[in-house]
Amino acid sequence: MGGVDILHVDDDKGLASLTADLLERKDSRFNVVTAASATEGLQLLSDLSPDCIVSDFEMPGIDGLEFLQAVREKHSKLPFILFTGRGSEEIASDAISAGATDYLQKQSGTEQYELLANRINNAVTRNRSEQKLRETKEEYAAVFENARNGLLLVDVEQDGFRFRRCNSRVLEFTGLAESELIGKTPQEALGYENSRAVAGAYRKCVAMRETITYTVTLTHPVGDVVHEVNTTPIIRDGEVEQLVVAFTDITERHAREQKLREERAVIQQALDALDEPLFVTDIDGRLKHCNHRALELTGNTEETAVGTPITALFPDEERETIADAVDDALRTGRTTITASLCLDSGQQQRYEFRAHSLTDLDNNTAGLVILGQDVSDT
């Protein structure tokens, strides 16, 4: 804990000065400023921003309890210790009810100042910890609410799960009202079919005790939504007590990817319908794709072919020629060469290969497409 600024209010200036001196001797971190009345104390309060107030009870004009009430109107959490020569259970009760942090009766001897110093230290330490916790919670709440992902806090109960909290993105992604979700079980909020998928993932997360990632399609008031989800367990005392569920709506992306997969499937069927072998390479001349005829002739599968240098499909004596042809096609955009393709049977077959360069979206050369035509009978 760093320095502690203390405002001490007491109409007995001699006692106030003595108290300040003894407190600063008891703890070198203490810096005590005195005021001779509650009115002066209130004037100093805004300028000093003290970490703690120590106040007498019986003072002319505004007494200690009235001073406390005035402080609490603007500083609800500021530590306030009533340090008074007049002691009774009634005063102590009134002080605590009015919001005093602590109550201490003045006594003879210097031991009371050590006790007062301890009370101040404890009150300030606790207040700073609580302030830090409040700030952390506020930061967490701001991050939680402003996250781009939908965020759900889910309680893990003995017989299931219950939604504890959500941010506005959850409501946007689902079309649900907060009252339809928070405090509800998955089945109450999402319906039977949706809840089966959701609760199944939650149970898996609890069992594995680690973050799981998955994609799930749920039916919401806004329609069918594809969620990409990360679910993370919160473990306390060895038990999974809550889950943090972060998800985003990838419905449009999923639809685009599905459309792309369908288009690729159609293109692949068209390429596989060719009677001639077709190869696609990268800029290093390694195979990226082959049609069905090319795989059939060479005895490869898609898995064994991908990454293989295209030169490996030709006899040793022709590989340098094939490599030169690949370089020429990458440089000029196209080339034609006749060469012997090594077949799965161990034989060779002459093909005329026409190579054309391929470009990426930035118009950079990305590889070659090579189509062979059987010329063994010519």
TrEMBL record:
Entry keyword set: Phosphoprotein
Modified residues (4-aspartylphosphate): 56
Xref: Pfam families: PAS_4, Response_reg
Domain PAS, chain residue ranges per copy: 136-185, 263-333
BP terms from Gene Ontology: phosphorelay signal transduction system
Residues in Response regulatory domain copies: 5-121
CDD domains: PAS, REC
Domain of life, source organism: Archaea
PROSITE patterns reported in the protein's UniProt record: PAS, RESPONSE_REGULATORY
Name recorded for this polypeptide: PAS domain S-box-containing protein
Species assigned in the record: Haloarcula quadrata
